[in-house]
Amino acid sequence: MSRERRSDAVANRDRIVEAARAELSRSNGAVDDLKLHLVAKAAGVGQGTLYRHFPTREHLLAEVYRHELTELVDAVAPLLAEHPPLRALTGWLDRLVEYARVKRGVMAAIEASAWQDLYAGQHHRLDEALELLLDRGKAAGEVREEVDAADVILLLGALSRIPGPEWDKRAPTVVTVIVDGLRPSRARPS
């Protein structure tokens, strides 16, 4: 019986996180629009169940962030298995744009100290995933040799400056410019 309750608790937790992710995605990461009673309703659980798993909005948002990050990191291997390295990197960056949409709202809502702990404990995984994509691209001759993950992350910082209403229009363009800049320079005739 206790195993059944534990599996129910895990399923409830997962549904709550998924409902919060869906709501944040629908609202372009607008955390202020995230109504916890509506998340509980969408997840098919009572508010008490939601608060047992996530005592505060920040706890729920931190779990959404961790979940998004895990999915983003886990996407690297399948993308590399299905596509040439630069196409895999482009597909991953497209996913990163969606991740950044949710992360922007989450970052604003989580207290600064809690965010630093969350970031420090998780972000190395993102760096490692990006480095793997870049290394495969370099090995295939599709990515400049001198580029590393820190360079791309600096370029991706431009995403944080895109105002919410312009996100859908400008974020894909920023990714395209970044990918074009990662390509090796063509040899020039002398």
From TrEMBL:
Start-end of DNA-binding region: 35-54
Domain called HTH tetR-type: residue spans: 10-72
Keywords of the record: DNA-binding, Transcription, Transcription regulation
Signal sequence range: none
Keyword Transmembrane helix: no
GO molecular function, one term: transcription cis-regulatory region binding
InterPro entries: Homeodomain-like_sf, HTH-type_TetR-like_transc_reg, HTH_TetR, Tet_transcr_reg_TetR-rel_C_sf, TetR_SbtR-like_C
Record's keyword annotation contains Transferase: no
Protein's name according to its UniProt entry: TetR/AcrR family transcriptional regulator
Taxonomic source organism: Amycolatopsis balhimycina DSM 5908
